[in-house]
Amino acid sequence: MQLVKEWINSLGYTNYTISVVSADASYRKYYRLHLEEEKTYIIMDSSMQVESIYPFIDVSVRLLKANVQIPRVYSQSLEHGFLLIEDLGDIHLINILNDASYKLVYTKSIYEILKMQEADTTGLEMYDETFLMFEMELMQEWYLEKHLGMTLSDEEKASLDQTLHLIKDEVLSQPQGYFVHRDYHSRNIMFAGKGKVWVIDYQDARNGALTYDLVSLLKDVYIRFDRAQMLELVLEFKQLKGLKDVSDEQIIRWFDFTGLQRHIKILGIFARLKLRDNKPAYINDIPMTLEYIHEMLDLYPEVAPLKKILDKIS
């Protein structure tokens, strides 16, 4: 905190206070800078991994050029990993989502996906076969083995690997080459008034699949709505994208298998956050994640080997 204060002083601010906003699931911390006359900014502290500030700035420029609603950056310290950014308040989408508001709020958020998908992807890392598999393999190591203490037989390992490859192939069968936020959910979208939604926490963006961010939004592991309601929004996305040659059944299949990939990954990540990073709160979100997975396992018999493994823990 002392380094943060010294940097704020170097910007010419003297009469201020600093309060903690949050420490997210990674290495970043966020503080609120309170100035006179109730003016506030957010300080993003990436000093634990200074190099992470460069992709944040890079992706910010890409999104601004695509007219995506993101917080403005006012000052930066590349040496220390500090950014002074626009304060969007404390209202996230999860705070305003309910049965009455979801359609309007999600539709606004889908329009931001459409804009993000127009962003320049040159030089972004690919959401490719290797990375999709790496993410899903976190489930076996961190969730099944280290968190639950399960030991899979050689036969189970082989059938699981085959199933994960099938899921990966389904994800890659859809149109690729789109800007992918990677974590576009109700805690990473702000509602800052004037009927607008604002996108945050986008620095880990990759180049990947058409439906990935739509899945993050509509298959959110922090809040869940009826599947039929979400599929209406999937088809609205399809119409807005002008995907006339893609059947409703096809985009729903892409959406579902991309959701399986994401939720399998999340099981591993949430367990790792608890066991490696001493952040146990995310374990509380595993039951909803499993609900999404089991819903898909009941719909798609081709992923039965995964169902057989997960049924052992239910």
Are there runs of 5+ residues with pLDDT below 50, and where? none
Q: Radius of gyration over alpha carbons? A: 20 Å
Task: Give the mean pLDDT.
Answer: 95
Percent range of helical residues? 40-55%
CATH architecture designation of the largest domain: Alpha-Beta Complex
| CA-CA gap between termini | 44 Å
Count of structural domains: 2
- Helix count equals 11
Assembly category: single chain
Please give the largest β-sheet: 5 strands, antiparallel
Would you identify the CATH H-level superfamily of the largest domain? Answer: Aminoglycoside phosphotransferase (APH), C-terminal lobe
Shape: globular
How are the strands of the biggest sheet laid out side by side? 1-2-3-5-4
Percent of residues in beta strands?
A: 5-15%
CATH topology of the largest domain: Aminoglycoside 3'-phosphotransferase, Chain: A, domain 2
Element order, helices and strands?
A: HEEEHEEHHHHEEEEHHHHH
Regarding CATH, which class of the largest domain? Alpha Beta
Derived structural class: alpha+beta
